[in-house]
């Protein structure tokens, strides 16, 4: 094994519950034009490189990240998906999804490349406002998921909406 190993992770890549086991781990694979799993946004707490095509990234509880999965075989695309997930605290209830351990709170789950591209354009628009997509109101990601599943265009995220979210979050602390 090579790469940077963060505190709380043992040599075999498993969690050490006594030192950092609260981290959510996401297993990423990249085999060009075959399996391409990547993090679109999110504040990583650390990375562990397993080999040339695999690595594990870690997120602290409460961190929001965008996880894109695409895979193909000789006949074309077999998986095309984006999940926007909030990492959980130890012992919290969670939803499971492939490659994310122990799981997380799924804020958005979209399948099919045209819809995934639409979400990625939405993320780009948020970044165009100078806003980190990981800091967006979690309810907005739910809104995007619900409206897209209904076949409708979601409302754009605005600087005003973001300022309101930041004030609500501050009051809630």
Architecture overview:
- By secondary structure, the protein is of the alpha+beta class.
- It has one domain (24-172).
- It has 3 helices and 8 strands; from the N terminus they run E-E-E-E-E-E-E-E-H-H-H.
- The chain has helices at residues 113-128, 138-149, 159-172; strands at residues 24-31, 35-41, 46-51, 54-59, 64-73, 76-87, 95-97, 100-111.
- The protein has a 5-stranded antiparallel barrel with strand order 1-2-5-6-8.
- The termini are far apart.
Portion in helices: 10-25%
Largest sheet: 5 strands, antiparallel, barrel
List low-pLDDT spans: 1-7, 14-19
Helix/strand-derived category reads alpha+beta
Strand percentage, roughly?
35-45%
What order do the helices and strands come in, and which of them pair?
Blueprint: E1 24-31, E2 35-41, E3 46-51, E4 54-59, E5 64-73, E6 76-87, E7 95-97, E8 100-111, H1 113-128, H2 138-149, H3 159-172
Antiparallel strand pairs: 1-2, 1-4, 1-8, 2-5, 3-4, 5-6, 6-8, 7-8
Write a concise keyword list for the protein shown above.
single chain, 173 residues, alpha+beta, five-stranded antiparallel β-barrel, 3 helices, 8 strands, globular, disordered N terminus, Glycosidase, DUF2840
In short:
It contains 3 helices and 8 strands. It is an alpha+beta fold and 173 residues long.
